[in-house]
Amino acid sequence: MRKFAPIVAGVTGLAVSLLSGQASAIPTCVGPPINIPDTGGSVSFTTANAPNACFQVGDKLYGNFSLAGLIADAPAGGSVVWSINGLAHNIGFNANGTYAQGASSTFSYEVQVNQGTNTITAWAGDVIETTGNQSNLTKTITPVNGGTGGTLACEVNGTPPPAACPVTIPVSGMDEAVSEVEVTGSSAQVSSILDTIFQTPAGVPEPASLSLLGTALVGFGWAVRRRRNKV
Questions:
Q1: What's the rounded Cα separation, in Å, for the pair 72 and 81?
Q2: Among 25, 144, 214, 217, which residue carries the largest CB count within 10 Å?
Q3: Interior CA angle at 164 toward 111 and 47, to 5°?
Q4: Which of the two residues, 126 and 44, has the higher pLDDT score?
Q5: 75: buried, middle or exposed (CB in 10 Å: 19+, 13-18, 0-12)?
Q6: Burial of 14 (0-12, 13-18, 19+ CB in 10 A)
């Protein structure tokens, strides 16, 4: 039986790896993450807090914020507001006042699922415009450490294309970086850009993971049976 100890250890390690999930830490955190309790409410921070700060929100770690390109009418800058609803996190990038009319704002950040196996499955984008003409939003989601991303493009108070906001696209992975560009119409009043991140239910392994685990267990059973037949 000792000859099969490496096989048992290998299968056990594979099962633990598949069912627990693996992800590396966001590298630019300075100090411990700021914890935002998953209470279903809303929590905000200003852009002054963003550089090199990381935020633990429920099962997600947010970091690598680059928000200097949020162009507001006055005063400059803005804030980020989380609205937590279980596995779906709504994130609003709010200008102090409104986004500057006829200007292009750019910003980016990274989000990582660092607890469990709740793979990110979709990403949504929206523009909150109260008055004015067409404003456009483009989000580019890039997977980190594996997975899939995509580009989301939408508009408000205009004539498609692109599609009218809000828009949702499928993505996959446990670590995604997003860069965003919002072009405010020349007479538009835009107060916020919204992201919504969706995940699979907790504790539900992906079908591919279950298939690989099953194949490993079948192989282990065949090896044990062959050993017994030789005895």
A1: 16
A2: 144
A3: 35
A4: 126
A5: exposed
A6: middle
Contacts with 84 (C-beta within 8 Å, 6 or more apart), sequence order: 36, 38, 39, 40, 41, 42, 43, 57, 58, 90
Q: What is the mean pLDDT of residues 121-134?
A: 95
Q: Under 8 Å CB-to-CB from 55, ≥6 apart: which residues?
A: 33, 34, 35, 36, 45, 61, 62, 63, 82
Token couple for 162: 């692109």
Q: Is 151 helix (H, G, I), strand (E, B) or coil?
A: strand
Q: How far apart are CA 231 and CA 218, in angstroms?
A: 20
Residue 228 confidence (pLDDT): 43
Closest alpha carbon to 37 in 55, 50, 51, 23: 55
Instruction: Write the pLDDT tens digit of every residue in 111-125.
Output: 999 877 789 999 999
Q: Quick one: pLDDT at residue 212?
A: 35
